[in-house]
From TrEMBL:
One of its GO terms (molecular function) is glutaminase activity. Belongs to the glutaminase family. This is Glutaminase. It comes from the Bacteria. Keywords: Acetylation, Hydrolase. Gene3D superfamilies: DD-peptidase/beta-lactamase superfamily. The keyword Acetylation applies. InterPro entries: Beta-lactam/transpept-like, Glutaminase. Its EC number is 3.5.1.2.
Length: 309
């Protein structure tokens, strides 16, 4: 079913776009810095297959931290929650996504949750396979399975750019290796994680993933449980408590839906039982979340009374 452009969404996008000038496109990964600061698009995917949208919805972007929800779902399905939560905790940090501080101040150095970089690196480390290629292919196949889009791939330039500039993530990994939460070659892990973050899609496909989480892992179109209900619920809970990093509390109060952001400017939203949302707006606030994307969600949540609280 084609995604119909929607006049009301278009008006919200026009209003929210005004905030893009107050933010900044991420450039700590140099290849991300090329995006148009003013870009803003949204798609809403309903369980019955209908889709409405506004903005340049064909524009592809990389998942970045949004991929952390998918890798978490994948390892929970492969290994089970008992094993996964031996390596990573369940508590929000209130710190920036790449912060190292809690690893040292809390004993025994176990990352507090899978949405911060330290926790996500441990989760990616748990993806099984003989080689980076083989492990990445498994994860990508899983994303293809969730979306039903077999053409999905990753952005090589952005993956390479992240690999070359990931010294802080390397530092996190070495700390975690010293404390036995990681036991593999760190260059390999950074390679795998950079590719994972560079998986690329447009906001239509992202909204489709959001819809699947909104429906507790069930895809009504294909009449299949793609992710077990319990795994989908764990992921959504992390999206509420840690999905927007140290802005998660304010986001829960103002918007009130499970959501996950990435430094590319993507936001995936899952409105429980109702629909999935995919947003792309690369201008970021100081916490690394899409500044216009959050405004857009705020207006949408108010208009449609979306808060689950
Ligand atoms: O680890 C990193 O630096 C990135 N590839 C992902 C970070 C990210 O998207 C944080 N989100 N707001």
């Amino acid at each position: 079913m084609p995604c119909k452009s929607n006049e009301e969404l278009y008006q919200l996008v026009t209003e929210a776009r005004k905030y893009a000038k107050d933010g900044k496109v991420a450039d700590y990964i140099p290849a991300l810095g090329k995006e148009n600061q003013e870009a803003l698009s949204i798609a809403i995917h309903y369980p019955d297959g209908r889709c409405i949208s506004a903005g340049d919805i064909e524009k592809k972007f990389t998942l970045q931290s949004i991929s952390k929800v998918i890798s978490l779902a994948y390892v929970l399905m492969e290994l089970g929650k008992e094993e996964v939560f031996q390596y990573v905790g369940m508590e929000p940090t209130g710190d920036p996504f790449n912060s190292i501080i809690k690893l040292e101040t809390l004993s025994p150095g176990k990352p507090l949750n899978p949405m911060i970089n330290a926790g996500a690196l441990v989760v990616t480390h748990l993806i099984k396979g003989d080689t980076v290629e083989n492990r990445f292919q498994r994860l990508l196949d899983f994303v293809k399975e969730i979306t039903g889009d077999i053409s999905l791939t990753y952005n090589h330039e952005i993956a390479q750019s992240e690999f070359e500039t990931s010294d802080l993530n390397r530092a996190l990994c070495y700390f975690l290796k010293q404390h036995h939460f990681i036991d593999e070659d760190i260059e390999q892990l950074i390679d795998l994680y950079s590719k994972q973050c560079a998986i690329e899609m447009n906001c239509l496909v992202l909204a489709n993933i959001g819809m699947m989480f909104a429906m507790d892992g069930y895809d009504p179109q294909r009449e299949r449980q793609i992710i077990p209900k319990e795994v989908a619920r764990i992921c959504k809970t992390f999206m509420v408590t840690c999905g927007m990093y140290n802005a998660s509390g304010e986001f829960a109060i103002k918007i009130g839906i499970p959501a996950k952001s990435g430094v590319s400017g993507g936001i995936m939203g899952a409105v429980p039982g109702k629909f999935g949302i995919g947003i792309f707006g690369p201008s970021l606030d100081e916490k690394g979340n899409s500044i216009a994307g959050i405004k857009l969600l705020e207006m949408l949540s108010k208009k449609l009374d979306l808060s689950m609280f």
